Automatic annotation (TrEMBL):
UniProt-listed InterPro entries: DUF1996
Keywords in alphabetical order: Signal
Domain annotation DUF1996: ranges: 32-281
Name of the protein this chain belongs to: DUF1996 domain-containing protein
Secretion signal span: 1-17
Organism: Amniculicola lignicola CBS 123094
Pfam families named in the record: DUF1996 (PF09362)
Amino acid sequence: MQWKGVLALALAAPSSALVRFHCSQLVTERLDPLVQPGSIPSTHVHQIVGGNSFNASMEPGVYDMPAESTCTSCQFSDDFSNYWTAVLYFRAQNGSYKRVPQLGNNQFTSANGGLTIYYMQDAIYEPEQKSNVTAFKPGFRMFIGDVYARTLEQAARYRQLTYTCLDTFVTRSPELIAFPQRKCKEGIMTSLRFPTCWDGKNLDSPDHMAHMSYPETGTFESAGPCPSTHPVRTAQVMYEVVWDTKPFNNLEWPADGSNPFVWSFGDATGYANHADYVFGWKGDSLQRVMDSPCHFKTNCAEYGHKMQSIAEMNKCTQKPVVDEDIDGWLPVLPGGFQAEYAPN
Ligand SMILES: *[C@@H]1O[C@H](CO)[C@@H](O)[C@H](O)[C@H]1NC(C)=O
Ligand SMILES: *[C@@H]1O[C@H](CO)[C@@H](O)[C@H](O)[C@H]1NC(C)=O
Ligand SMILES: *[C@@H]1O[C@H](CO)[C@@H](O)[C@H](O)[C@H]1NC(C)=O
């Protein structure tokens, strides 16, 4: 199996990368090549970052993302992957919706929206990462979360998809499973962590999740072994998305005190938080990053990894192929969704 070759390489090098970097907004529109390939439009609005070869089909194993891309909105210039999530809308008292924009995260404030990405080997934020991980391969993709979850019980299957109410721009706890039920002074951050154990065979699976698993002991943070069904340890991929809810704090909120934020597919509970990943790093560049002692993004260039400036990232954008208003005050969410609250 091919991954064994990659693993051998990984074992030959000292291993200590923990990278945290930003990707600016590539495009925001109704496309979803992972869950609804070929559909123009897909059912709900997403915000997408990464390589500009992103399109509605991206046939796995055939579509060469680094070769088809001419730029990436990510700081690592060899990363032509696509990373995306649904988008948030604010629901006004009169029932109209307005899209909540994103902000560049802490340390990336000049970025145009987008999201921050981590690839971690160990569940500590220390420079010294002792574990070894196997990088994903071309054609690899995954999904985490449940678009249909509307209860805590349904959401509990996905252990690390959370919301943080930003009292300051750098508030990082507590992490909540549902939408915060109060006004958050500096916005809302979503943190989305993918499972870290791969079956070593399948680049994808029908639900886009079964080829991946959490460690035997629960979450990545518990540092347990991978189950025998999914023996290959991968990096923890995590997204942080900062939603600029500040402008909506001055508008009228629901009189019953309920949260006015709604995902683009109608979930008003927050339990259906989910994320999509389509791997597209050039050649073995991700494995080389993970095998070098590169911490956050600050010293990665020293180890020969190609980095670009935030100004350059911001230039890599796509024109939406789906022509519709997603930003005005809208009577229904794009695709026809209305806010859905928890079942009684
Ligand atoms: C990771 O690889 C390095 C270099 O080969 C090795 O020294 C180390 O023991 C490995 N770590 C683990 C946890 O396997
Ligand atoms: C995606 O891009 C590929 C390569 O350029 C092209 O063959 C394909 O038709 C595109 N698909 C869509 C739906 O735009
Ligand atoms: C609904 O409320 C928003 C926020 O106050 C306002 O900007 C918008 O014009 C209103 N829409 C309608 C149709 O009244």
